[in-house]
Amino acid sequence: MKVKSSKKELNFKLDDILDFFKTKDVSMIESLPIKRILQNGIVVDKKDHYQAFLKVKTTDLTSLSSDDFNRTVNKFTYLLRVYTEPLKIISLTYPTEVREQLSYWKYRIDVTKKKLYALEKTREYETYSRKEEYLRNQLTLAYENYNRIGYVGTLKELTFLFVVYGKTQAEVVNRIKDMTQYGGKELGLGLLDKEKVTTVLTKLNNMNEKD
After folding, report:
1. Of 63, 39, 87, which Cα lies nearest the Cα of 198?
2. What whole-number distance in Å separates Cα of residue 74 and Cα of residue 83?
3. Residue 137: which domain range?
4. Which end of the chain is least crowded, N or C, by CB within 10 Å?
């Protein structure tokens, strides 16, 4: 009987521990009712309190030198130590944005094709072979870059955001300045604009609803 009691007690405690670590999030709208989003991206809730989303500069830590890596980690630690106001850290995944790069290499492909076509029309025999070889190499390079960037666009990019809070807009603006200063160039914190904040809130709400 003692063994059974111990097992029950153990299971009860284990359930309590697991329950503690379970996600308690509700939808973003429920946890923070949104009144409006200002043009500068600052959010106003229904209690007329303010908050702002700051994006951390995307950095491939594995590609950094040991000195740069340590500087980045130390800067993050420093920020958390000196910034004593309420703060939240959020991580989200997005499709990697490559539209501009794809557009550039598509342009390079089109331009190189036109040059090859024009070259074939002129047939400058003394320089034709050399020019053709050069242009075809450029075309191959453009296609390779276009395809490689297209593949990168199928990958997910992990984004980190800091959320800062204040009772007034001026208070939040000051805290944005503090965070930007504390984060330095290593974290490269930038305030999200209205459109991006709307996307973040929608994504957070949808993620919580799926849970």
Report:
1. 39
2. 14
3. 99-152
4. N
Decide which of 71 and 61 is more confident: 71
Of 174, 168, 208, nearest in space to 191 by CA: 174
The whole model's pTM is what? 0.58
Q: Which amino acid is at 17?
A: I
* Number of domain units in the chain: 2
Query: Is residue 132 domain-shared with residue 41, that is, in the same domain?
Result: no
Query: How far are the Cα atoms of 46, 50, 74, 181 from residue 176, in angstroms, in the given order?
Result: 21, 12, 20, 9
Structure tokens at 37: 């989003």
CA 190 vs CA 30, 83, 208: distances in Å: 26, 16, 25
Q: pLDDT digits over 48-58, tens only? A: 899 999 998 87
Buried b (16+ CB within 10 A) or exposed e, 152-174: eeeeeeeebbbbbbbeeeeebbe
